[in-house]
Request: fold
Amino acid sequence: MKNNNIEDPVTKLRNSIEIVSGHQGNKDAVLDYQKLFSIIINESSKSYMNRFVDDYNKHGGYFHYKKIVAYFREIIIAINPEYFYPNMLVSTIIEGIHHQIFFAQHLPSLTDKIRDEKELAEFYINLALTQIQK
Reply:
């Protein structure tokens, strides 16, 4: 992970948002990260916006997603221990990134034109830091 051996929580947050936005995918990996990322964008909301969400949750179906949110939350708390809404901010960032990419691909009138994943990541980094550092 890009955050190994990094102490500065702002740098960790920046790196984490870049990864979620697709900006830091490993180009040399065996997996096709672009295809995997496309599946995540197109299918992620469907995994929990269904009538079985409580059953899936009870059986650990969202364990990894919750683990990612907890990881982000700890970074946010390291930046500002008094920030009152870390979980809400994290889920807003993650889902917001996914929605903006989906909108850009399928419903462009619902978003603004962005050049690339780096620009999208910068939007959410600025949003997060503005909120956290108030």
